[in-house]
């Protein structure tokens, strides 16, 4: 199993540090936290792979810390965080030697992608190689899972937990996975539960069954729909997941290319794939992961 990327997170706001740590660790990263520049420099002896550094901090500001980091660890890629309207300061950090910068609030998928990109820049020698599925996936340990005998109510609770809703002062956003991997008692993947599966379950059978051609012209009155949603939800409260889940996603090898993943998703109508490494599931690659890989190539670093 690959070692997780070790990220040094430097920010003077405690709540932001802790929230970011939790989200990054859920996405498979190892984190080191520092609340100021002096502490960040001391943390360099823990050998971080990538540093995330807030520009606006009391005492030693981000630019000063950046310069000292480069002196001590010239190969350490540093991603700067800046508030909206502070583009000049962010671009100054690039001149000083930062790998890149992101504006707050930043989407967690974008931040994760930027961390991996920074880490790869540190590892690469010679010509840049195309990323493989294993480097772009979400680790299985970071993906939401649930037992196949859990109820729909329990699954909704778990799925909601994957959407981290944060106060605006935390300045970071989490998109969630929008699905849950369904596991048996031996922790083997049996299927997947998506929001669409839940929506299908609450629809009455007569709305989804095959209708004669003349039924296309039927118009339901507003009274017909009233109260139906609430009633349908109550009826499925105790239904177990294995009754409504979709089949497990198609698998792909961790050493496969991203183009192979894109082709499988389009050809087999899959929104996510199970990543296999050494004959065992090791992660999930989603369509949004490929989307961010596209953006990495098409959008100049300063505009990402």
From TrEMBL:
The modification 4-aspartylphosphate is found at residue 54. It comes from the Bacteria. This is Response regulator. GO terms for biological process: phosphorelay signal transduction system. Residues 137-209, 245-301 form the CBS domain. Residues 6-119 form the Response regulatory domain. Keywords: CBS domain, Phosphoprotein.
């Amino acid at each position: 199993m690959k070692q997780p990327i070790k990220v040094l997170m430097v920010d003077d706001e405690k709540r932001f540090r802790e929230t970011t740590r939790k989200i990054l660790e859920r996405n498979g990263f190892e984190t080191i936290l520092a609340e100021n520049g002096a502490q960040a420099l001391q943390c360099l002896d823990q050998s971080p792979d990538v540093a995330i550094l807030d520009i606006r901090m009391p005492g030693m500001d981000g630019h000063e810390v950046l310069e000292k980091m480069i002196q001590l660890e010239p190969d350490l890629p540093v991603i700067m965080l800046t508030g909206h309207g502070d583009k000049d300061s962010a671009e100054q950090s690039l001149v000083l030697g930062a790998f890149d910068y992101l504006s707050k609030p930043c989407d967690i998928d974008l931040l994760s992608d930027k961390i991996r990109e920074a880490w790869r820049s540190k590892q690469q020698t010679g010509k840049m190689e195309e990323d493989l599925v294993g480097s772009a996936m979400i680790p299985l340990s970071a993906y939401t899972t649930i037992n196949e005998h859990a109820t729909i109510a329990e699954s909704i609770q778990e799925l909601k937990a994957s959407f981290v809703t944060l106060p605006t002062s935390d300045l970071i956003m989490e998109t969630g996975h929008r699905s849950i991997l369904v596991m048996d008692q031996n922790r083997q993947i049996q299927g997947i539960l998506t929001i669409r599966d839940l929506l299908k379950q609450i629809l009455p059978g007569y709305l989804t069954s095959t209708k004669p051609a003349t039924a296309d012209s039927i118009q339901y009155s507003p009274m017909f729909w009233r109260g139906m949603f609430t009633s349908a939800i109550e009826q499925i409260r105790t239904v177990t997941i294995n009754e409504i889940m979709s089949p497990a996603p198609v698998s792909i090898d961790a050493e496969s290319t991203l183009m192979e993943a894109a082709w499988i998703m389009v050809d087999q109508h899959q929104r996510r794939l199970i990543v296999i490494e050494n004959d065992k599931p090791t992660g999930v690659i989603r369509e949004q992961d490929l989307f961010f890989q596209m953006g990495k190539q098409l959008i100049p670093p300063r505009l990402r």
